[in-house]
Amino acid sequence: MTKIKIITDKKFSDLTTFRVGGPIKYYVEVGNDEEIKAAFQFAKENKIKIFILGGGSDILVSDEPFDGLVLKYIGTEILVDGEMVTAEAGAVWDDVVKKAVDENLQGIECLSGIPGSAGAAPVQNIGAYGQEIKDTFEKLEAYDIALGKKVTFTNIDCNFSYRESIFKNKEYWQKYLITKIFLKLKKNGAPSVKYESLKKDLDDNDQEYSLKTVRESVLKIRAGKFENPNVIGNAGSFFKNPIIDKEKALTLMENFPEISCRLQDDGRYKCFAGWMIESAGWKGKTYKTAGVSPRHALILINPTGTAKAQDVHDLSEKIIEDVYKKFGVKLDKEVQFINFNGKF
Ligand code: NAP
Fold first, then answer.
1. Of residues 19, 132, 141, 163, which has the active-site annotation?
2. Would you state the pLDDT for residue 128?
3. Which residue of 151, 163, 310, 318 has the fewest C-beta atoms within 10 A of its own C-beta?
4. DSSP 8-state symbol, 240
5. What gap in Å lies between CA 163 and CA 135, rounded to an integer?
């Protein structure tokens, strides 16, 4: 049987960009089929749960001890074959974007700089500046953890929607270990410049629109506006922009003329959660050991590196409550809560 290295002194705070989270009983990194099977076997023999960790950039883990096995796939190979880009799940997502742009392949340039791993990218259908991974996603390979069998999910199987996929549904969440993703990009395609903020940055700097300039511009805007997880613990956008019915959106726009709501293809409106949180007074505020970024109200932060998971949790609930009181809109979390009350 293939040997795997079981580590017993890891904490989620070492492994997540929020730098929050309790001790882990067993942690193991796997890089090939044999190691994956050996890790599954170890969990089975010890009758313990498996938690699959990606880049740790989109989760908030409780401070409670985790009694099971945390499994991380660390293969990082990125291959380009014509217009097909294949990335192992452990590859850094931005390395995939860089490779695609270097190869003059269009389709993910706006997704530059999003933290996390390639394997985690389809789970929440990452998106930015009007591009989503679902637009270029062909398929993925994964292991069904219960059966120990390799399976494939096509684009349709993943049931993508705004920051959502089938993998976030209860029946699929943590049931699959994603090992490889396949993207179909477009050789020499024109870059996507849909959002005003991106267009303005390119125009203000007299940049022609190319995959390279769009990538550079996105990276620059992100560095100026979002919190860098290497500097301050955070998990990117904590809340999703709510998508609401036309009637409610029109009333909101009448009552709050400054609110930014965009008409969607399905006739509903997507309203900017960051603006609502800011006008509910939360931008830059702290609550116990947790805080809201002073740069971008959608981002919750670990201000001094000592945040307690429960405080971040309670802060997010307070924000949801205040936004609901002021706007009658219930915000949904984009970040997944792990090991709160034993649930994951
Ligand atoms: P922004 O450009 O200041 O725009 C503010 C909001 O309005 C955004 O949330 C965006 O919605 C929406 N918006 C702007 N132009 C739009 C258009 N032409 N059509 C439809 N909606 C439009 O946004 P920002 O806060 O600086 O963020 C920039 C981009 O990075 C956003 O797309 C954001 O979602 C993305 N981002 C993604 C992640 C992630 O995937 N984890 C993390 C951080 C930021 P959307 O947010 O729905 O695009």
1. 163
2. 96
3. 151
4. P
5. 13
